[in-house]
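FORM 7B - TANDEM STRUCTURE REPORT

SECTION 1: FIRST PROTEIN
SEQUENCE AND TOKENS:
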Amino acid sequence: MSKVRPFISSKQIQRAISSIAQEINDDYRDQDFIIINVLQGADRFVFDLENILAKLRYPPKVECIKITSYITQNSTGVIKTHFTPPKEAIEDKHILIIDDIIDSGLSLQWLIRHFEQKCPRSIKTCTLLDKQERREVLITPNYYGFIIPNLFVVGYGMDLDGEYRELPYIGELM
């Protein structure tokens, strides 16, 4: 098992989530929208964010998609879908895709294209971490918590081969 050095504390994460929730509240105040939870890394982030958004006039519904592109610490560049919401759940709806981290941007770009085929009214994106220096495609999330350097991070739902997901903070893998 590798060592993990704390990088972003639980308290910092909660402050960022409150800030993101306020932005989403402002943008979706009187609109019905659907959160697309990108499993599994975004689970904790979506759960904490959804608790705040539940106070909206139209609290969001949550749908899930599971995709994979990583083997250990390396992206394969190939996205595999394990399950996705049906077109009927997305068609003519405002959707907000929420993921844990964006680095190359390839997964988020793929997700946007995937959901565009389901004819939503609009698509926005949200990520807790934005690793801009790794970007391979021109894409910027609509909402994000932290811009981070090119580190491999775990915790707060993010893992390495299923390990470290339970950490209450985000740590750098040493």
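SECTION 2: SECOND PROTEIN
SEQUENCE AND TOKENS:
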Amino acid sequence: MWARFITRWVVGLMFFMAGWMKTFQMGPLEHARRLFVEPYAETWIPEWLLWASGTAVPIVELVGGALICLGFLVLPASVALGGVLVMVTYGHLLLEPLFSTTSHIFPRLVLLVLVLVIPRDHDRLSLDHWFFFRRDRWFQPPRKSATSPPPESAE
């Protein structure tokens, strides 16, 4: 329970804070211009795609990071953030084929994979658990225990 909670919060904060800075301090359009459009202008990637992805990344990081911290819709948020990691990895390697992923990309990847690998039914400190796992138990009839006496016959 605690391993997934702590891992969720660490990776969630890493993405959330990056998204916060890119969204509210830099701005999504400036982020797109400075980190996507200008550096990749001479690559095969169309300009419209650079603008679209560069503008979307800060919002995906912000929302995905918050969702992972809260433990709500963790699987879709993790997949979206994993997509960001794949895109960022490809972008860095496109410009510099021997780019080192150890300081920025790899720690986020490892923590994100840990969140996905640790069984989610052990994560009782998440909104997913409260909304989805507990709800299923509320609507199921109680199980009979092995120690309960058998029903009496009507003979």
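SECTION 3: OBSERVATIONS ON SECOND PROTEIN
The chain has one domain: 2-138.
Residues 2-138 form one domain.

SECTION 4: SIGNATURE
Preparer initials: ____
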